[in-house]
Amino acid sequence: MKTASVLLSAIAFFTAGCASMHGPAASGTAVAQTQTCRPINEQEVAALFERWNGSLRTGDAHKVVANYAERSILLPTVSNQPRITAAEKEDYFHHFLENRPSGQIDFRYIQIGCNSAFDAGLYTFTFDKTGAQVHARYTYTYAWDGKQWLITSHHSSAMPEKK
Hints:
Helix content is 28%, strand content 36%. By secondary structure, the chain is α+β, with helices and mostly antiparallel strands.
C-alpha cells in the first residue's frame, strides 16, 4: 500500500503543469512566467536507463553517480540506507559493482512532464561474477538541469514474491 501511495504521489507531481511562479507572482500579484519545457519522448526516457545501466558496466562508481542530480535520493535494492550525498551513493555503488551487475527492463511505465520524466516498472539484475539474479521493482524520476537529464530519485526494491 505504501508503494502505491508513493507511486501515485510521484505521478501527481510529474503530471502537474509547466507554469511556475517567479518574482512578484510568488508574492501574490497576478504576474506569472512560464518556464520552457525541454522536450523528451518515451524512447529518450528509456535511453536514460540504458545510459545508467551502461555506467554500471564500467565498474566505476563515480561514473554511475554522475547520472544523479546533486540534489537527489537513492533508495537502493540491496541496502537499507537511503543515499543522499554523492559520497553515500558512491559508497553503495562501489560495493554493488563488485559483482558486475547488469539490468534488464522487464516491464516499464513512462510518464513525461515539463522538464521531468518518470520511469517505473520491473527489472532484473544479473550479476556476472556470481550468476545470481535479483528481480526488483524500480522508479526513476528525472529532471532537466539546463544541460542534461539527471536522476532526481531512484527507488529499487527486490520483489517480495519469488517467481
